[in-house]
Amino acid sequence: xxxxxxxxxxxxxxxxxxxxxxxxxxxxxxxxxxxxxxxxxxxxxxxxxxxxxxxxxxxxxxxxxxxxxxxxxxxxxxxxxxxxxxxxxxxxxxxxxxxxxxxxxxxxxxxxxxxxxxxxxxxxxxxxxxxxxxxxxxxxxxxxxxxxxxxxxxxxxxxxxxxxxxxxxxxxxxxxxxxxxxxxxxxxxxxxxxxxxxxxxxxxxxxxxxxxxxxxx
Length: 217
What we know:
Elements: H1 2-32, H2 39-55, H3 69-82, H4 92-101, E1 111-112, E2 116-117, H5 119-131, H6 139-143, E3 148-151, E4 162-165, E5 175-179, E6 184-189, E7 192-197, H7 201-204, E8 207-213
Helix pairs in contact: 3-4, 4-5
């Protein structure tokens, strides 16, 4: 009987010692693991982190001018076509007018959208519709007009200048085109009315001069 009591006592002491060791081990474990947030503290920290991330990005307004969808489309498409930054496309009336005629087949002495056009007639109506100016549909008359200031230097070219070309030996001034930006011009070729690269050999061999309407007094 005494043996069993002593055995039970030893068992009880052993259990108490193990319990104490486990308590100490648990306490040490909790000291070692990362700090655990309460749900309130976690939500607060998460919100602060999001704010820091959001503030690191710059908010960019791509439509500062508050353009309508049509003008915004013109700005984006023609900046790509001409290889310039979107902010350099500002004359939406000009590019919208051109856009409606792009792809019209070349037909001499015609002026019908999507049916046929030559660049002299197109330039005449463009200047009337976009700039409110009246110019002849005959290239030679435009070239000799007193309202036009002629020059040859390409470095002076700017949007809206008229370019003069000689395609026929019998006519010193055979056709015209309109300078846009970044050496892009709107002109008529056998492929129709479109935007072309002014540096193309086809145009360079035939280029005569450029003209700009004089400022009205």
